[in-house]
Amino acid sequence: MGGEPAKWVSMVTARTPTNIAVIKYWGKRDETLILPINDSISVTLDPNHLCTTTTVSVSPSFDQDRMWLNGKEISLQGGRFQSCLREIRARAQDVEDEKKGIKIKKEDWQNLHLHIASYNNFPTAAGLASSAAGLACLVFSLAKLMNLKEDNSQLSAIARQGSGSACRSLYGGFVKWIMGKEDNGSDSLAVQLADEKHWDELVIIIAVVSARQKETSSTSGMRDTVETSALIQHRAKEVVPKRIIQMEDAIQKRDFPSFARLACTDSNQFHAVCLDTYPPIFYMNDTSHRQDNQLCREMESCRRNTSDNVQVAYTFDAGPNAVMIARNRKTAALLLQRLLYNFPPQSDTDLDSYIIGDKSILQDAG
Ligand code: DP6
After folding, report:
1. Does any ligand 1 atom lie closer than 6 A to the CB of residue 44?
2. Phi-psi region for residue 140, left (φ > 0), alpha (ψ -120 to 50) or beta?
3. Rounded to an integer, what distance in angstroms lies between the CA atom of residue 76 and that of residue 359?
4. Cis? peptide before 257, omega within 30° of 0
5. Does the beta carbon of 177 sit less than 6 angstroms from any atom of ligand 1?
6. Among 23, 25, 84, which is best to mutate for testing ligand 1, by the most ligand atoms less than 8 A from CB?
7. Is residue 315 within 6 Å of ligand 1 at its C-beta?
8. Which of 49, 61, 303, 357 has the most crowded Cβ, counting Cβ within 10 A?
9. Which of 53, 52, 62, 67 is CA-nearest to residue 10?
10. What is the pLDDT of residue 140?
């Protein structure tokens, strides 16, 4: 860089969808490295509906690392951001772009500063896994900027240190976060179980019951659960390992009834351990409970009226919003129609902020 006035900026933009767990991660065995007490499985959403877009840039004229989220500057001082930045800088490689006159030696990355601008196309911290998409996108875009040689699985182990569920957003389709055994976390990473084409009839619809920031963050909620719940160890040691095997099998065979039963019961158990926490954590509200009740009844009527089995699965994360997974477009259209009839959006909410997902499927309901 030779003391010359800085003229260049190198920039990378990436877009990463969020993911929704169908077998939940809840509880850490190491808070700093973010190592979970059980494996988890998620489905990565369509980037058109819930994603983070991040632009990372580097220039010798930047005098400090800075970050903006949805246009507002936020602090990068948190331990989790710093862990990700440290891990990525440690793996950075030489970057050369003759046309733009850019030549960065790998040791230069320790002294160069970054500007990061991130934008979510959905409400932040309303239980819609914003940290998952955000941290995964940050790690991925920085890895491209700094020319890392690591594959997505290795990058997932870095994203994990930003937010556990972020490691699963490095892949599309169905993804498993293997909890790993090592104390240093080197084997706690995400692997893709099946790509997005494997089961592409599934339709995911999210009803945003509340876009307000949740009162208990996942991080503090799961800490309290691990410290106080008598059920959580039973869940982590006895229940989840069996469900992981069954869920992998259901996904591989595209067996919707098994998939739905596992997803719904795992969501129920996750909220049960939240209630078993002291003081108890209530992520679902009255509307969420009425919705899951309604969905169970819908499933029951599908089962009785047709020769086919269950048509819709639900899962609730650390928030009141219902995530519904319909077997195909036809079921999704019916589901959406009934949802809008039984749970109309509140007067000050428009359809776009109430329902996240492909609303064009409504036409399929006739
Ligand atoms: C209920 O990944 O947000 O969505 O690792 O502390 O950042 P930290 O927690 P986070 O927790 C997600 C919890 C969950 C279940 C899941 O996504 O598996």
Report:
1. no
2. alpha
3. 37
4. no
5. no
6. 25
7. no
8. 357
9. 62
10. 98
> What does the DSSP 8-state code read for residue 212?
S
* The three-state (H, E, C) secondary structure of 161-196, written as one string: CCCHHHHHHHCCCEEEECCCCCCCCCCCCEEEEECC
The answer to whether the CB of 283 falls within 8 A of the CB of 316 is yes
**Is the CB of residue 134 below 6 angstroms from any atom belonging to ligand 1?**
no
Ligand 1: which residue has its CA nearest to atom 6? 219
Check: CB of residue 27 under 8 Å from CB of residue 236: yes
Angle between helices 218-228 and 256-275 (to 10 degrees): 70
Q: What is the pLDDT of residue 346?
A: 78
The vertex-158 CA angle with 152 and 161, nearest 5°, equals: 140
Would you tell me how many other CB atoms lie within 10 Å of the CB of residue 178? Answer: 17
Task: Judge if ipTM > 0.90.
Answer: yes
Ligand 1, residue 42: give the atom nearest the CA. Answer: 18
pLDDT tens over the chain, length 366 residues: 455 555 799 999 999 999 999 999 999 999 999 999 999 999 999 888 889 999 999 999 999 999 999 999 999 988 999 999 999 999 999 999 988 889 999 999 999 999 999 998 876 545 565 689 999 999 999 999 999 999 999 999 999 999 999 999 999 999 999 999 999 999 999 999 999 999 999 999 998 887 776 778 999 999 999 999 999 999 999 999 999 999 999 999 999 999 999 999 999 999 999 999 999 999 998 888 888 888 877 766 665 665 454 589 999 999 888 999 999 998 888 888 888 888 888 777 778 778 888 878 877 765
Residue 60 and residue 267: Cα distance in Å, rounded?
48
Residues 6+ apart with CB under 8 A from 270: 24, 26, 316
DSSP string, 238-260: IIHHHHHHHHHHHHHHT-HHHHH
Q: How big is the CA angle at 274 (ends 187 and 16), to the nearest 5 degrees? A: 50
- Cα(325)–Cα(21) distance, rounded to whole angstroms? 12
